[in-house]
Amino acid sequence: MRGSLIIVAFFIVGVLMGRFIEMPAFVTEQDPTLYALYVLMFLVGISIGSDKKALQALKQQNLRIVLVPLGTILGTLAGSAVISLVLKDRSLTDCLAVGSGFGYYSLSSIFITQYKGAELGTIALASNIIRELLTLLAAPFLVRYFGKLAPISVGGATTMDTTLPVITQSSGKDYVVVSIFHGITVDFSVPFLVTFFCTI
Amino acid sequence: MLIVIGLMVSGILLGYLFRERNLKFVQKLITWAIFILLFLLGLSVGVNDQIMNNLDTIGIDALCITLGAVAGSILCAWGIYKFYFSKG
């Protein structure tokens, strides 16, 4: 939670500086952002490759654990597609790209800004922050009405770190491994799905 | 797109090869890269009048997409729980 507040603070300071201070043109051009993004992707790759928890989690559970992230991804994409029918000025692929953030707002908003511009990037930032907040606030309610997997699915890519404590509390300790495995798998899918929906 | 995926895959291979080393600094670097990139995103939003004047529609669109996405995943999670998990 503290980490998310700092990230939002960086964004807001950026907005205020962009709004009220005259910026040299090179800062808002896309080039520096693009190279920073490349560095970030390389680093994210290293952290995924060196992660031992995912394989361990898979060994401890039977194969049904794989269904949970699959359900999250399919459900999210289907839901985002339906919403694109309601939102007239957002295309199907725009909505799918935003939905594919799965709560991983930092990475998805950066990607979407790069491919689709700052407006959709800001939507992705807001949308995915809301998703994380919703998980933190509604986890007990979700367990009660939709079963113990519901907060994990809503938590998306955040279920191995920021939302794990809440999920452990509401779904129980038995679901910690499911939650961590789910978070890592969905997290891993974010850059691929977002890039895919932004470029088709 | 190919560059991004290529970089990520080579990162994964490197991470796997060096997984016994202490890679905590990578997490710190990621955090800082994210801070810088979101600051830059903030800057480009701040200088863009079209976005600044439409923050309300942007917020509503964001909320709608979230609600759709969340509703879809709740349905799937509920089905999977019912058929594969609740029977133990």
UniProtKB/TrEMBL annotation, chain A:
Q: Mind telling me which GO cellular component terms the entry cites?
A: plasma membrane
Q: Which domain of life is it from?
A: Bacteria
The name of this protein is Lysine exporter LysO family protein
Q: Pfam families, alphabetically? A: Lys_export
Q: Which residues cross the membrane?
A: 34-51, 63-87
One function term, GO molecular function aspect: L-lysine efflux transmembrane transporter activity
Keywords recorded for this protein, A-Z: Membrane, Transmembrane, Transmembrane helix
**Listed PANTHER family:** LYSINE EXPORTER LYSO
Q: Does the keyword Transmembrane apply?
A: yes
Q: Which organism is it from?
A: Odoribacter laneus YIT 12061
UniProtKB/TrEMBL annotation, chain B:
Which keywords belong to this entry? Membrane, Transmembrane, Transmembrane helix
What GO terms are given for molecular function? L-lysine efflux transmembrane transporter activity
Transmembrane region(s) = 29-47, 59-81
Q: What is this protein called?
A: DUF340 domain-containing protein
Q: Which InterPro entries does this UniProt record tie to the protein? A: LysO
Tell me what organism the protein belongs to: Odoribacter laneus YIT 12061
Q: Does the keyword Transmembrane apply?
A: yes
